[in-house]
Amino acid sequence: MSQFKIFIVEDDPWYGQILEYHLGLNPDYEVHLFATAKACLLKLQEKPDLITVDFSLPDLPGDKLFQKIKEYNPSIPVVVISSQEDISVAVGLLKAGVSDYLVKDEATKDLLWNSVIKIRENQSLKKEVETLKEELGQKYTFEKTILGNSPVLKSVFSLIEKAIKTNINVSITGETGTGKEVVAKAIHYNSDRKKKSFVAVNMAAIPKDLIESELFGYEKGAFTGAVSRKIGKFEEANGGTIFLDEIAEMDLNLQSKLLRVLQERELTRVGGNESVKLDVRVISATHKNLSDEVRKGNFREDLFFRVMGLPIDLPPLRERGSDVLILAKHFLDDFVKTNKISSLSLAADAKDKLLKYPFPGNIRELKAVIELAAVMADGQEIKAQDISYFSVQKENMFLMENKTLRQHTCDIVNHYLKKNNGDVIETAKALDIGKSTIYKMIQEGEIKAE
């Protein structure tokens, strides 16, 4: 590990040598003493890790030297040492960003010793956090995280690339288990916000009476049990991204408060009066059709347009073809590594069985199926007999909906039109019906032409 470089700027040679000697007792410290501000400024290119500054220097006051240091590199911690005990001066400097303010007396060298230790620890923590964030960003390189090469997934990649180039809000739709949060993280950790927080909130998992304080925070005494101020999820995400999962489950009253926060780019904590400025990117997700929810009166139209931004619709696993096998291998390799067992592969009949199954639970279900198969397998290969599917059959859920046969027909034609990008001929071929039937349904307003 390289030494921690400390600059001491002190015009009193005797006092400066005392500080230099005292800090130099730590072999991890590389200490340099300067008698003037100018001499220090000329050596800033040597990248000191910390600078102590005498407040009363002959060529430049300590506060002015501090400003010049910050202009050169705002991340260098500065400790001001002064013979003045003026509280207002100390407060002013601390507000301006000095790391510590020490008054010259017999205890100064020990106080400085402790201050340096704290500053060094804070710097180490910051570097560790930056390293972790960098690693996390690499982990969420979306081509490595969102596995597959099907045409429908490549369309998703194209939209993700557009999302990471700007700060536009993003709305992600798709069936449960299609990987909406994975996509949200991929967008955040590949954007210019990646060094700030990614905060995920499941709107459906928070009780209705707690969700406002959870999102926007509260002040001490705002309600019974509020014994101290609590920072909400939006403030936690300030400068970064907030992921609002299952946004369609929001109460209408809270929707109006969220709308105001997004419009004004500020919030007021519950029980407070102070406005907190926000710079937050919103990525929302839902398995419902928000347009339908607006028409039903369950979701505010003005909020819909605020959160919609760039829409990304994730395809269900059954439409991704051989991506099933790519994901299956990934989950299998990961399970083997995590559980430290012998390597496993998929037999031909197992692959065939996986490709024929519609996976109503999507990627989440595939992961569970593969892990169970890995446990059930004998030998080094997973066979078809080792693969079991769970009893939940979502593909039959539509039969429980209170719709006429004609309404079901319209839904099916709409689905295939969307899948085929509005191509009526391709849709007619896929459904084995005449294209004139589809045109008639469009003309009569039963379905919409994309």
Automatic annotation (TrEMBL):
Keyword ATP-binding in record: yes
GO biological process: phosphorelay signal transduction system; regulation of DNA-templated transcription
Any one Pfam family match given in the protein's UniProt record, by short name: Sigma54_activat
UniProt-listed CDD domains: AAA, REC
Domain Sigma-54 factor interaction: 146-375
Entry-annotated residues carrying 4-aspartylphosphate: D54
InterPro entries: AAA+_ATPase, AAA_lid_NorR, CheY-like_superfamily, Homeodomain-like_sf, P-loop_NTPase, Sig_transdc_resp-reg_receiver, Sigma_54_int, Sigma_54_int_dom_ATP-bd_2
Keywords carried by this UniProt record: ATP-binding, DNA-binding, Nucleotide-binding, Phosphoprotein, Transcription, Transcription regulation
GO-annotated molecular function: ATP binding; DNA binding
Domain of life: Bacteria
Domain Response regulatory: 5-119
Official protein name in the record: Nitrogen regulation protein NR(I)
